Every structure is written in structure tokens, then in C-alpha cells.
């Protein structure tokens, strides 16, 4: 964008849209946000009836990442918030963020974007023509110097019904409404040649709100991502029987790590990331798989996938293994075919009397308002430089946020994408030549294809810390740990050994926040505050401590004596203990 560029269209007022508005304001740009609904929140807004073209969440949804890891980098969540948030709490946080930074006045609610097209002089100006329509039906055409697409990719459900032979006559399950008192309807939004003989009902997780309609039924849930696991567990509590069908299986981990602390707080650390690059990945995968299998054997429970645990994101679910153990939920392989009310799986096993099939099979990334040329790749996916800037554009004046899945919290990543894009739009950062960006993108894709059998997954999946650090370097806010250790050891040690909370990216450089240092120093206080609901006195020093020291000295003396008689014994024991210790430490720190 030329240096004089000021106006930027922000499409969507969810978490990424709000971050974009703020980042544009920080860089002296003029954001104009268009939101099709009547409120902010995007994905985190719960509605009883899902709206076509909008994201949808179920009633019981909680975050999979903890509050200290997923907050915006200059706006910590309130200390009294629980560590894992219900969707209503997350929406409340987004409202606090919008009010604190006065973002609401920049949003045009109930305004739909119909088209975003480059102006005739795009090669010179980089400007866009945006056509919108408000709630009164008034259409307007605007000219913008930049466009930030923040409409999300959880809006158009993907139903792989064509994988099954025949033509569709099954009904689709919907929420009860005045027009559909029986709770079922034909849903023309899912054209699906397939499962013609199935006499039950079908729905997508996009439609799912709670388990009420599944009481006493026999249900098959297809797809074992985070939503599939959550929905299968919830349905299993009221259904007669629930089957979770998975093509590849998954590593399943809970939200809790050692001492009951949030998993991501303990795992996403710079030291752990360093170990991932220094030690053999196969060894680390074996160590971590061994640690998780000690809690419940993934092979025994029918969960074990083909891939190693460090190669793909695990499923976050606290209750799935317990439901399997209780017998209310069974893991099944991929579905081969439907025969009336029977479902036949790939291993030849048939389950009779299936009432409902819930497809938790993901979403299609669809942006009908964008030029078709932007989705010109063979897979129909946008080729994006660092998952932000389309490679098919002559001028980098349009950015797409959130088109990525990371092994960690999503909101800090989208905020960093917004910071980078805003500085590019403001002319403060210049992207490499187009040929260089193509080479970098192709290299990243080829590296990811080795981990993922699906090319679309290879395009969007990234490791959290390496990815957000790469963007931080582009923005100029990557924390210099060595310098911090020399100049501010209290912060340097926490940045290196502690959780990689988003505040680290506000310690220096553009957008520096004065409160970042204090936020890092107090992050553990905010973590434990919601847990301290019952006062418990601190334990008093015990006389057993002295006896423990004496006993330890005696053991050391005995070991030395035994070592003299058997020189290799102590060496072997230390080696084994060290290996086990490293295994446990890596899994829970």
C-alpha cells in the first residue's frame, strides 16, 4: 500500500476482526469493519439456531487453551476468570477488549459484504472496491486501500456424503422450530449424493447445540477432531449407545498436566521448543507417547493413530477414555456403507438400528465475496505467504487472517498476523519479491506433506511457537532472550524457562506495552486465583525433614559401598533413572 494509504476494510468482528481494528489504529490507519450480525464475537457467539454463513458453537463448548496462553498480548484476562473458559466467558472477554480500546465505533453491524474486487488501476494503486448491503437493503460501494478478511473458515460445513454409494434420501436433523415441530427437516444446504438407503437422520456438528434430541438413540459420530470428541462424549451420556468413527485415530490428551496445571502452560515453552530441535524427534515422540500410554493405552482403547504424537495436533478431551471404559462409547473404524438402519464399518462389523449420524468432518474455507482468482490452487485453497498474504496478488493490499491451525492457542497467532498485516499496509514493512514468497511457501508445504496425508492439512497446519516467532521477527517484536538474561534476568529466565505467554511479544519493538513486564511477573498469580476458593493452611515444617536428610545420607553411603563391590551397578541405575526422569519432565513441563 502506498504511504498515503489510510482506509482499511475489516470483514468480520470476531476475535481476529477486533485485533485487526486495534492494530490498524496502532499504525495510524483508518479501519472500517463490516459485521453481518448484530454483535461482535464471531465463533464464540452462541445462538439456539445456527445462521447460514455464520459460525456456530454448541452450548457446552469450553476452550482447549488456557486463559494466560490465549489472551491478547496487551490485555490479560481478569484474574478471577477460570483457566479454561466457557464460550460465554470468552465472548465477555472480547467485549471487554472492544470497550477498553474503543473499537465498537469502527464497526458497521448488520452489514454484509457482497464483493471485494480490485479497482481497474490496482497494479498502481493497490486499491479495492467493496460492495456492502446494510439491514435496510441499502447497497453501497466503497474504495479501500487495504482489506483484512476476518470472516473465519468455520462457516460452511463439509459433508463427505459422496464417499458412500447411492443417492441421498436421508433426512437432516435440525433444531425444533415453529415450522419443524418434530425436530427434523430436509436441509437443501447439504447437497449429498450418498447413503440413499440409510433410514435415519443426519446432521453436521455445525447444527449441533446439545444432546437433547439424541436421548435414548443409537448414534454414530463421524470424525475424531476436538468437536467430534466433545460431541460424542456429550451424546453418550444420554444416548442408548454412541459410536465414534475415525479413519486414522488420534492421540487424546487431557487439559491437565502435572500438579493439575493447564497443559499448554506446561508444554508451550521456549526450552521445550529448543529440545525439539536439538534431540531426535522420534525419540521425543516415543518418550511422550510412553508417558500418555501409562495413563491409558491408546492401542487398547482403539485410539492409536498411524502418526507419531509430535507430528500432528492431538485431540484435547478429558472424558473420552472414561466413556470408553464405561462402555457408553465405542471407537469404530471408517464407515464403509449404510444399509437401511445398519452401518457397516471398514472392519466388516455391522451396527444395527442406528438412528442418527453426526458428521464432525470440518468445514470448507469459502469466501464468496472474494475474486475467484484467489482460490486458484489445484485444491481450491488460497495459497498464502506465511498463511496471510495471497500469492496471486500483484500488490500485498489484502490479507486473510485465521486460515491456519496451530499446535497451541489461536488468538495470539491471529493478533500477530494482524500486527504484521497492518504494518505492511502502512508501508512500514516490505514483503520479499513474489518469486521468493512462492519458494518459501512451496518449501513449507513440502515439509508439512511428510506429516499429513491430506494436502489441505499440509497447507494450514503449523507448529505454534516456530510460526508465531517467525511473524514476530517480521514485525520486529521477537524477544531477545540472551539480552534479557543479561539486562533483566527476572524476565529473561521466565521467557526462556516459563510458559510462552503472549505478553513476551510486547516487551520491545513496535507496539511495545509498558505493562508487559508486570503481566509476565504476575501470570502465575492470575492462574491460581480462580483455584483458591477454599483456604487451606500452609503445612508446618515437620521433624521428619531431619530424618529424611539422615536417611538420604545413609542411602548415599550404602550406594557408594555397593558401587565398590559392583562398579557397573550404580552407573546403570543412574542412566535408567535419568532417562525416565527426562521422559516424565518433557511430558509435563
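Q: What amino acid sequence fits the structure above?
A:
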Amino acid at each position: 500500500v502506498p504511504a498515503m494509504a489510510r482506509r482499511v476494510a475489516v470483514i468480520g468482528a470476531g476475535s481476529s476482526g477486533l485485533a485487526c481494528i486495534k492494530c490498524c489504529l496502532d499504525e495510524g490507519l483508518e479501519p472500517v469493519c463490516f459485521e453481518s450480525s448484530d454483535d461482535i464475537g464471531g465463533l464464540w457467539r452462541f445462538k439456539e439456531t445456527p445462521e447460514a454463513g455464520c459460525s456456530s458453537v454448541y452450548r457446552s463448548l469450553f476452550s482447549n487453551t488456557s486463559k494466560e496462553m490465549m489472551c491478547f498480548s496487551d490485555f490479560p484476562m481478569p484474574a478471577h476468570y477460570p483457566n479454561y473458559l466457557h464460550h460465554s466467558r470468552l465472548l465477555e472477554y472480547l467485549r471487554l477488549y472492544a470497550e477498553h480500546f474503543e473499537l465498537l465505533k469502527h464497526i458497521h453491524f448488520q452489514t454484509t459484504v457482497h464483493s471485494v474486487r480490485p479497482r481497474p488501476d490496482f497494479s498502481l494503486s493497490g486499491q479495492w472496491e467493496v460492495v456492502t448491503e446494510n439491514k435496510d437493503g441499502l447497497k453501497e460501494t466503497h474504495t479501500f486501500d487495504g482489506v483484512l478478511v476476518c470472516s473465519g473458515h468455520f462457516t460452511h460445513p463439509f459433508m463427505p456424503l459422496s464417499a458412500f454409494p447411492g443417492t441421498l434420501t436421508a433426512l437432516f436433523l435440525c433444531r425444533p422450530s415453529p415450522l419443524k415441530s418434530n425436530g427434523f427437516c430436509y436441509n437443501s444446504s447439504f447437497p449429498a449424493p450418498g447413503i440413499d438407503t440409510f433410514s435415519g437422520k443426519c446432521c453436521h456438528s455445525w447444527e449441533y447445540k446439545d444432546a437433547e434430541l439424541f436421548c435414548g438413540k443409537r448414534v454414530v459420530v463421524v470424525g475424531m477432531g476436538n468437536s467430534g470428541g466433545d460431541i460424542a462424549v456429550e451424546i453418550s451420556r444420554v444416548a442408548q449407545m454412541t459410536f465414534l468413527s475415525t479413519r486414522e485415530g488420534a492421540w487424546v490428551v487431557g487439559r491437565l498436566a502435572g500438579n493439575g496445571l493447564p497443559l499448554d502452560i506446561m508444554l508451550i515453552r521456549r526450552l521445550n521448543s529448543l529440545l525439539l530441535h536439538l534431540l531426535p524427534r522420534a525419540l521425543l515422540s516415543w518418550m511422550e507417547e510412553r508417558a500418555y500410554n501409562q495413563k491409558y493405552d491408546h492401542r487398547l482403547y482403539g485410539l492409536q493413530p498411524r502418526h507419531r504424537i509430535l507430528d500432528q495436533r492431538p485431540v484435547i478431551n478429558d472424558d473420552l477414555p472414561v466413556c470408553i471404559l464405561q462402555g457408553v462409547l465405542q471407537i469404530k473404524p471408517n464407515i464403509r456403507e449404510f444399509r437401511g438402519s445398519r452401518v457397516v464399518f471398514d472392519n466388516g462389523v455391522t451396527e444395527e438400528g442406528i438412528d442418527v449420524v453426526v458428521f464432525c468432518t470440518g468445514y470448507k474455507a469459502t469466501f464468496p465475496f472474494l475474486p475467484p482468482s484467489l482460490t486458484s490452487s489445484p485444491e481450491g485453497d488460497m495459497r498464502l505467504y506465511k498463511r496471510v498474504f495471497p500469492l496471486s496478488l500483484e500488490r500485498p493490499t489484502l490479507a486473510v487472517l485465521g486460515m491456519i491451525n496451530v499446535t497451541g492457542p489461536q488468538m495470539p497467532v491471529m493478533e500477530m498476523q494482524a500486527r504484521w498485516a497492518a504494518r505492511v499496509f502502512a508501508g512500514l514493512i516490505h514483503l520479499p519479491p513474489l518469486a521468493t514468497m512462492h519458494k518459501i511457501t512451496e518449501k513449507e508445504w513440502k515439509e508439512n506433506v511428510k506429516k499429513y496425508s491430506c494436502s489441505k492439512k499440509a497447507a494450514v497446519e503449523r507448529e505454534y511457537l516456530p510460526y508465531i516467532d517467525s511473524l514476530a521477527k517480521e514485525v520486529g517484536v521477537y524477544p531477545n532472550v540472551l539480552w534479557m538474561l543479561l539486562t533483566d534476568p527476572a524476565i529473561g529466565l521466565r521467557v526462556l524457562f516459563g510458559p510462552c505467554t503472549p505478553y513476551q511479544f510486547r516487551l520491545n519493538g513496535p507496539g511495545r506495552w509498558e505493562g508487559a513486564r508486570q503481566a509476565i511477573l504476575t501470570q502465575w498469580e492470575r492462574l491460581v486465583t480462580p483455584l483458591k476458593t477454599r483456604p487451606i493452611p500452609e503445612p508446618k515444617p515437620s521433624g521428619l525433614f531431619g530424618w529424611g536428610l539422615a536417611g538420604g545420607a545413609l542411602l548415599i553411603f550404602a550406594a557408594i559401598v555397593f558401587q565398590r563391590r559392583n562398579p557397573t551397578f550404580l552407573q546403570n541405575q543412574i542412566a535408567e533413572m535419568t532417562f525416565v526422569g527426562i521422559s516424565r519432565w518433557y511430558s509435563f513441563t
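Q: And what stands out in the fold?
A: The first strand starts at residue 7 and ends at 11.
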